[in-house]
Design goal:
The chain is α+β, with helices and mostly antiparallel strands. It has three helices and nine strands, in the order H-H-E-E-E-E-E-E-H-E-E-E. The protein is 22% helix and 32% strand.
Amino acid sequence: MKHPENSAFGRCWRGLPSTGAKHRPSHPGKLNPRLGAAAGIAAALLGLLLCSCDSNEEENGNTTSLAGTAWALESFSIGGADVAPVTGSVITLAFDDHGTAHGSSGCNSYSGTYTATGPGTISFANIVSTEMYCLSPAGVSTQEGLYLSMLGNASSFTTGGGRLRITCRDGSGLVYVAGGE
């Protein structure tokens, strides 16, 4: 049985010639300096590539970043009609820099994770809520269930004119104005 250092894999891993020569590296377990330099150059090029990706989505024709923004729900868009939230309830949505969204769903507080990717795509996951039972204003509990369900079905978003529009997979949507929370 060949010793692993003398196998073809061992020689390639250490950058040794694959001539079959029984050369033992002077520093067992360390990469050949030529490979270390190549790995360093590759890492630097990868870093430059990642840094050169423009995160300002407006310049790329996409929507602006949501991180650090806060919104208040202006209306539900259902079946082509805009419906205002129940009078006396306030629904908010805020996005932090770490992928967490949170706010008030009219009665309870909620939070979850969000992912905003591609040109205007968004999804929410792991949405949790406090469990207060709210009797007033009338209809607030039903509205809250609808709102949280719509967040869970979000698929895209746009911003502009001080508004955030989140569209769900079924075509319904949520329209917010800047300044919630």
